[in-house]
Design goal:
The chain is mainly alpha-helical. It has 2 helices and no strands. The chain has a domain of 32 residues. The two termini are 20 Å apart.
Length: 47
Amino acid sequence: MMVIDTLMLVQRLQGAYMAHPGAFQVTSALIVAALLAGWLIERRRAE
């Protein structure tokens, strides 16, 4: 489920990137932060 949500998010951000090329660094940083947060949450649930 999370992978599908992430792919949808990436597609939206790609559309935003086409409209605003300067925002690419910010959006890529947000993607990394979201993936890290999701990974940490999954790890805590597994414990």
